[in-house]
Amino acid sequence: MSTTILCQVARAENPYYLEDVDMHIGSIEELCYYLQNHLPLVDLSFFSMHLLDWIEGELGAVRLAQTLHRILTEVPDPKLLDLILPVMQEAGWLNTEEEKAMREELRAIDEQPVAVRMKQKADMLVAYKKYTRAIRTYELILTMKQTEKLGSAFAGSVSHNMGVVYAKLFQMDEAASCMKKAYEQMHTGRVLHDYLFCVRCGEGKEAYEKLAEELGADQALRDTLDEEMKLVVSGAEPEDVDNTLRSWVQEYHRETGL
User: Which of 15, 57, 191, 198 fits as disulfide partner to 175, beta carbons 3.0 to 4.6 Å?
Assistant: First the structure.
């Protein structure tokens, strides 16, 4: 972590392993930092008995562990707000205004549909290059009935982002398949660009040109794709391609808000 965290209590002799981001934490302050900055990765399952045992045994925060255990086992419908704030209060992590803002943020998260929260989780897993886990999460979202209720734009955004992950893995056939589904659901210029790019990389120029003609891609878009392909065929470093793919997601979020 680039941020310096001053620990107010002794560090744990045995750090706790956070599998999602491949990170070890050794204090309650580091736990608070993780919770505050990785909310999309935190759901009720995060507060496992293993974590509670670690909080009690390694950090010596017996009362906190008991509080969390009571909430998980006795409260009929526990919320993230009920679990995260006690941890931060134990560490004195937030001032009054910060705690107020955190309460509002957590209430908003708790009100979101599960599928939306899962997509946010998958997107953050991509940021940490946990591609296989991200793909599994995207696939699960697409099987949920709730996803259908959220509309074609949401389902298309999931397919699009899954396509980006496959492209990062240089699995262009799978990427193009995802982009095709996304374009059928959204019909936006951004998704058309990404779909054609994946076809060009995976199936070649002839297939790309045929598809571009069928879908009515204008010359400006084709010129943009030609410039991007020059980087690929010239043997650009993987990081350059990865940066291009990352920019897809950033532009896509700006254009769609999804």
Answer: 198
